[in-house]
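# nightly structure sweep
# worker-07 picked up a monomer target from the shared queue
# config: single-sequence mode, recycle default, output format = structure tokens
# input follows
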Amino acid sequence: MTQYNNNIGEKVMSDTKQDKSQVDEKNVEVVEEENSPWYYFYSNGCGFCKKVGPIVDELIKEGHDILKLDVADKDNQGLSQELKEKYKAQCGTPWFINSETGKQVCGFREKDVIKKWLDGEDIPAPPRPKGPMPKLPLFGAPDEEVEGWKAAYEVWKVENSHLPNLQTTDQILSRPRPKTDPPPPPNPNMTDEEMSTWGKLYNKWKDENDHLPNLQPVEKILERFKAQAQQPGGQQLPGGNITERLTFLEVKMDALMKHLGVPNPTPSQPVQPSSPIKVGENVKNLRPKTSKKNSGEGK
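# output follows
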């Protein structure tokens, strides 16, 4: 801008330069970082997770902002549980969910389906059978048993014609089959001694069926089931007296409060009920109370 000195009639140039910081403050738009709503929950012991993992990595390289969340992490476990409760979802891993809309994909899907989910489309659940397929006869079973299975499978196949890629009886029977029935799968609530006993039974069955491909070592199976016992929903309410049940509920409540960031400055004390509490009764009295100071009241 040009100015004139009134006393001597000289033209002087005023400093038109502004402080650079002021320019930056006026012209630079402040952008707040936003977290991606596209969540992918997985676990290391999940076979379908290993199958879909490379697809997720491809989509991330293509520019899709997918957050990969291992449920072995306690914070991720809590987040998964919160979303399941919020959207009334029931899914293990792999699990894809948009945290803002609740649109989700449960289980393994091909890349084109996951891309549709990323585009905001509703992904219908895959077709389900109307009933379980007849139990496959063991390897070396009598011919009468095999023929009976074939007849039962053909009936089941007609009833479930809505399912894609149903195989013929010959195709199924040509696959490797066990010679003996495997032991029932371990329960995540088993004790270490019960887990050890199950492991011995499994190793015996594995030796009898060494012709089967891809049999996992017992250590890997037990590790996976023990991890499931630590996940939300993987542990059942224990039996025993009412004090043991209340202590269990208190521990779960403390973990929830810690996840939500509610301070708990004093150590938890066992709850001693003044009167018997029936199972399923409201346990709101177990919730720790926040002081007025912490809640911002009473100022």
